[in-house]
Amino acid sequence: MKLLIARPMPAEVEARARAEFDVEIRSETLPLTRDEMLQALRDFDVVVPTLGDLFSAQVFAEAPNPRCKLLANFGVGYNHIDVDAARAAGVAVTNTPGAVTDATADIAMTLLLSTARRAGEGERLVRADDWQGWHPTQMLGHHVTGKRVGIVGMGRIGQAIARRCHFGFGMQVAYQSRSAKDLDFPAVYTDDLKALAGSVDFLILAVPGGAETRHLINALVLGAMNPSAILINIARGEVVDESALIAALQVGEIAGAGLDVYEFEPAVPQALRDMQNVTLLPHLGTATEEVRTDMGHMALDNVAAFVAGHALPNPV
Ligand code: NAP
After folding, report:
1. Distance CA 211, CA 214 (A)
2. Is 51 helix (H, G, I), strand (E, B) or coil?
3. Which pLDDT belongs to residue 209?
4. Does the predicted TM-score (pTM) go above 0.90?
5. Which CATH class is domain 101-132+139-280?
6. Is 135 a catalytic residue?
7. Which of the following is catalytic: 7, 16, 80, 236?
8. Domain spanning 2-99+288-308 has what CATH number?
9. Is any atom of ligand 1 closer than 6 Å to the C-beta of 261?
């Protein structure tokens, strides 16, 4: 059984992979090229791909009858893999749910607080040695405690964010999801995204990417938001129509945005980089040593189950 891991991994994960499998660990940190994906499907039994490795229907069409039978994705989001095309080619797909939940919720709160309280702007001011000193109207931001938060996608991460907002910051939680949830904290469900957008101070996105949610946040939804409201996206860049977001920020339709993900990442539009009221992170949601190690073990658990002929723990 030959295993390909598409990126360098935390040391513990690489050590386990080398101990348990005949593994090749790719040293580059950039996504697999088309040719590398075709080679991976032809020459390996299992591949551990990750974000950016675009296993599209086209790639599967170009590699008929692949040797590869499992893509054990490193990450909970798998919108870079055409799962239907994989299935049709006889390739199973797994992911790493749960391991990422708290860290990603923490980054959502980092973005919410940083954007509301102008932390990025303030840090830039201090670093530029431009700070003139404290005064009563210096850099007034948006109060967070007790405010209204709307969560789009009340799954594992959405609920972890909601818990932080409710228990940590006394916020009033409302949400939109495909279905209402049975929650152990107060949260108001609506199936009307525009109504939710118009009724909150912070709108946080926690839905999966993919065709179903592409541009879910468009000019209409942004237009429904309050001019004092802030949009936070830790989901996938394509969930937001980035041009519409830039336009909404430029005309003051919304007050700010906190972004961990981008429609065409790693490209981040100059217009966003020019705005002080936007917090920009380089997709840091799960970026802690512990979480990336847990994710790696989870991906390898799926590989091990496949090799042993057991049911896959995390099929998608
Ligand atoms: P999850 O448990 O599957 O939750 C996703 C939620 O989105 C579910 O509640 C689902 O509703 C809802 N949803 C799906 N399609 C929807 C739609 N069209 N409209 C409204 N709601 C919809 O997934 P998760 O573990 O929370 O992860 C969510 C996503 O976060 C991942 O897919 C990934 O793309 C992203 N993520 C980002 C980072 C990062 O580094 N920034 C890290 C981890 C994950 P139902 O429950 O009603 O079906």
Report:
1. 5
2. coil
3. 96
4. yes
5. alpha beta
6. no
7. 236
8. 3.40.50.720
9. yes
